[in-house]
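It is worth pausing here to work through a concrete case rather than discussing structure prediction in the abstract. The textbook approach is simple: state the sequence, then state the predicted structure, then interpret. We follow exactly that order.
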Amino acid sequence: MSFRHFLAHVGAPLAAALVIAALLLAACAGQPSPAPTATPGNPVITFYASPDTVRSPECTTLYWWVDHATEVFLILPGGQVGVEGSGQQQVCPQSTTTYRLKVNGANGRQEVIDAQVIVLSPPTNTPAPPHRVKPTRQAPPTATSTPTPTIAFTVTPPPTLTAVPTWTPLPIATPAVDPLLAGLPVRWGTIDPLVPAATADTTEHR
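Step two, the predicted structure:
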């Protein structure tokens, strides 16, 4: 069946409507369909300092990542500055300091996250004490006892006294005068008591 016969069969109004519909479909086929609109959620924030403890005058670095945000601000002791959704910033605090990241979410909600940096005091250079030589304790001298001299007394017994014989004078013999020898010379002498008197006299007169 030709298109002319089709129009004559269905009528002019219906044919016009079909033609308009075909033109609309052809126009829509040449354009991409619009993407679905995403529903905004709460902002997702990561913010920290590394290292979080330093010793003056050392420095540290602040790191952050933010999603679902329209504005991000880094709050420093001197004020706040606008930053990108992700980044890093070096800071050198002189004392313990708290840094903040303020985020305005796509849903209109505002979030503030803190990151604290602890600053320790610098080391004190304490001079080392002078080296002292520890005196060596000497042992006290050992007292040596001096031996006491021993005095030996030798007792010498006194000599035995020998009794000196007592001298006894001999008796003087008185010669006996023999009447027969009367008138003869008489020799006087010591008479040995061991020799009989008569013998002595006899010897003398011989």
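Step three, interpretation. The helical segments are 3-10, 12-29, 197-205. The CA atoms of residues 186 and 201 lie 9 Å apart.
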